[in-house]
Design goal:
Blueprint (H helix, E strand, L loop, with lengths): L5 E3 L7 E2 L1 H6 L2 E2 L7 E7 L2 E10 L4 E2 L5 H13 L22 H4 L7
Parallel strand pairs: 1-4
Antiparallel strand pairs: 2-5, 3-6, 4-5
Length: 111
């Protein structure tokens, strides 16, 4: 197996893009292998790595169907329901708490 070409940060040739750059163009990798690698050096730490894909082999993003849109809406709604009190918190429940803020930090009752 041949090694991937490695380019320094901001020096990749035209025709390559990261996943995010492909998505901004309305494209997806479409099953192709990683074509190159981008490295951003950092002091006293390992470099940041970004994988590059060939733009000419990328495929268009699949359109959002009504069923997929409904499933996504249900999944996002489920992330807002507190498992302790079963109410819609109005925001996505933090995974670190596992419940809405009032349930995680109850106010002491005033007597």
């Amino acid at each position: 197996m041949a090694a991937l070409p490695v380019y320094r940060w901001r020096l990749a040739p035209d025709g390559y893009a990261t996943r995010r750059q492909l998505r901004a163009r309305g494209l997806r990798p479409g099953g192709q292998e990683v074509a190159a690698q981008l490295e951003r050096p950092r002091r006293h730490r390992p470099p940041l790595i970004a994988y590059l894909y060939r733009v000419d082999l990328a495929k268009p993003v699949r359109p959002m169907t009504p069923a997929r849109r409904a499933a996504l809406a249900r999944a996002n709604a489920a992330r807002r329901i507190c498992p302790a009190c079963r109410r819609d918190a109005g925001y996505v429940i933090p995974a670190s708490l596992g419940m809405c803020t009032p349930c995680a930090f109850p106010q002491p009752s005033q007597a």
